[in-house]
Every structure is written in C-alpha cells, then in structure tokens.
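Example 3.2
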Amino acid sequence: MKARKPYFKLSDYILMAMISSMGIAVKVIIVPLAHIITGPLFIPGGVVAGGFYMAFLVLGASITQKRGTATIIALIQAVVVTITGTLGSHGAASLFTYTLPGIAVDLLYLILRHKACCTLCCFLGGIVANVTGSFAVNLAIFNLSTVPLLLSFCAAGLSGGLGGLIAYAIATNVRKLGILGKETRPTCAVPLPDLKTIAKSKGDENETK
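Structure, written as tokens:
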C-alpha cells in the first residue's frame, strides 16, 4: 500500500509560520498609527488596522489553496502573542480573539466552496476576518455600547475588504513570479461574479434608468 501523502507539506508549514510572524510584526507598527484616527471616535484602533494584519489570513489561504490554512495561521499568532505578550496581546483571551477570525475565514470558504481563489472571495474573506476579530475583542474585552460597536463593525468591514484585495494582489504576483514552485492558476468550484462585473452591471442598470 502506498503511504498517504500529508495534506500540508513542509513548505506549507514554513509559509504559514512566516506569514504568521509578518502579521504580528505589521500589527505592532500599524495599530499605534490607527489610534490617531479611531481615538476621537471611541472605537479600538485594531478595528481599522485589523484589515491589514487580518489580510495575512487571506494571503496564506490564497497562496496555499488549502482549507484550514487561515485557522493554522491564526492559531500560531494566538500562541506566539500569548507567550511573548507583544502589543495586541489580550492575555489568555488572545487564544480566542486571534483564532476565531481564522476559523471564520475557513468556514466562509467552505460554505462558498472557494479557496481564496478570486477577487470577490478574498474581499469577503477580509471582511469576515476583521468583523469577526472586532466582535471577538469586543466580547472578550471592550464591551462597547451600541453606536461605537456599529461604527467599529462598519470600519472593520471596510478595512477588512481592502486588506482582502491587497492579499489577493500579493498572492497573484507571488504565483506569477514562481517563487513557491510551478505557477498554478487557482480554480473556483463555484464561480462568483468578479467585482468588475458587479460594478459594470450596476453601471448598466443606472444607464437604463
């Protein structure tokens, strides 16, 4: 009998570890800058900055094209932040606040039957990751009132979607360069409409009106 090949290769684990560390490093730089914007609005700085470091969950899923990647990256970040106590650590609650967004991203792609393979699913992945992260932090720590909470969710969705688009662009360029081996174009099991197609259809509807 042939030995069953492992789902994740060694190169996948190395890649996920690298992406996890980059996400933590970016958070340390971006969150203090985000506080300048979010401070007057009485919402956490991570809500806006989260779109950029949550993008690494989508980036990992887009490069490996394997389910469970986002969860593993998030879990690595949770363990490292909990042990080291770096900026953004919530103590033991970090295991919850960091891991939940990764699980949410993998569940989204499982439901959509996608693997961070197109512009729209990366956009949605970024939104889900950052909104879930904002919800988890609010549940565990901040307990914001209704208005600041709604503002934080709106800001989280906007920055998360932008981060997802950035992740898709980076993953596409990485595949074109062939850094990780032979270039493979990801395929969508259930194709979603592209963002350009959606914008064009809305423009056509406005013209007909």
